[in-house]
Amino acid sequence: MWPVVRLLQALHPPLRDALRGFIWEEDGQPVGLANVLRLGHTDRWLIGNVGVLPDYRRRGIARRLVEACVAYARERGGASVVLDVVAGNEPAYRLYQSLGFEHYDDRYEFIHASGPRPDPTPLPEGYTLRPCSWSNWRPRYELAQRITPETVCRYVPVEEGRFRQPWLLRAFAPLFLAAEGLRVHSHLARQVSSSQVVASARCMVRRRRGGTNRIEIELDPLHAALAPHLVMEMLRIATSDAMQHPVELQLPRWQSALIEAAREAGFTLRYEYRSMGLSLRP
After folding, report:
1. In CA terms, which of 180, 248, 251, 259 is 20 to 30 Å from 107?
2. By CB neighbour count within 10 A (0-12 exposed, 13-18 middle, 19+ buried), where does 231 fall?
3. Contact 200, 190 (CB under 8 A)
C-alpha cells in the first residue's frame, strides 16, 4: 500500500501532512516518539502517540517532542493543535498545561465484547433510519455544524475540509478498504416532520480475523430518544459477521444520551481521555 500512498501524496500535496512525527534518540536507539498530522484538509492539527521509554522519562524529552510537533504545525500555517491524554495521567496533563494547552472536552472509549447478535429495538415514531453512501459527506457536515458545542469549535471547528474528501481519495478509497479488509455501513436518521438529518451513524466491519469493528455515531442532543435505537442497530451490524470481533465506540462527553445508551447496550468503558487544545494564532 505504501507505493499507492506515495503516489497520492505526489499528486495531492496536502496528503503529505497525513502522518508526520519525531523520534528522540539516545545511546544509538529511539527512546521517544510523537506523531503529528493535519486534520483532513484544514489548518487544524492533531498530536498523538507521545511516548518515552521508562528509563528516559522525567528528562524533558516528551516536552521537546511535543514542542517540535507544535512548531511543525505552526510552520505549515496551523491555526490550532489538539491532543488527548488518558485521564489520571497527571504528569502528562500538567506538561501539556505548561505548554499552553487548554482542557476543552472529554472523550470516552467503550468496548463491547464479542458475542451473539443482540435483539433489535424499535425505532421511535416520527423518525427514519436509512442506509446512505459512505462518501455522502454533506449531511454529516451540516449536522456537525448544528450540534457541535462552541467550546469544541474553538479548537476543532466544523469545516468542510474535515468531511469532504478530494476526488483522489474517493477514487482510491475502495482499494484502501479492500486492503484493510473493511466494509463500511453508513446510515442517516431523519425527523419525518421536517426531513432534517438528526443523526449520522457508521459501522466499520472487518472481514478478516483479528482487530475490532468500530462504530461512529453523531446525534443531535435534541433528539435523545433516538440514542438507544442507534446504538443497538449499529451494534447489530457490527456483530452480524461470523468472526465475532469486539466492537469499539468512542463518544465525546457532550453526547450524554449516546453514552447512557452504550452502557445500557453492554458496552464497558475502556479509556477516558482529556481533550486539550492550543491556539497557534492570536
Report:
1. 180
2. buried
3. no
Count of H-run helices and E-run strands, the chain: 8, 11
Q: For 76-97, what is each residue's pLDDT tens digit?
A: 999 999 999 999 999 999 999 9
65: which residues sit within 8 A by CB, 6+ positions away? 22, 24, 32, 33, 34, 50, 52
The Cα 44–Cα 38 span in angstroms is 6
Kindly state the DSSP code that residue 77 receives in the 8-state scheme.
T
13, pLDDT greater than 70: no
pLDDT value, residue 3: 55
State the Cα–Cα distance between residues 94 and 6, nearest whole angstrom: 38
Grid cell for residue 230? 442507534
Q: Is 132 in contact with 139 (CB distance < 8 Å)?
A: yes
479509556: which residue's cell? 271
97, amino acid identity: Q
pTM of the model: 0.89
Contact criterion met (CB below 8 Å) for 241 and 210: no
Longest CA–CA separation in the chain, Å? 67
- Which residues is 31 bridged to in the sheet? none
Domains and CATH numbers, the chain: 2-78 (3.40.630.30), 110-271 (3.40.630.30)
Looking at the chain, the whole-number percentage of residues with pLDDT higher than 90 is 72
Beta strands across the sheet bearing 182-191: 20-26, 29-38, 44-52, 80-86, 268-279, 102-112, 247-252, 213-219, 197-206, 182-191, 127-132
Torsion, CA 194, CA 188, CA 248, CA 255, rounded to 10:
-20
The rounded distance, in Å, linking the Cα atoms of 240 and 215 is: 13
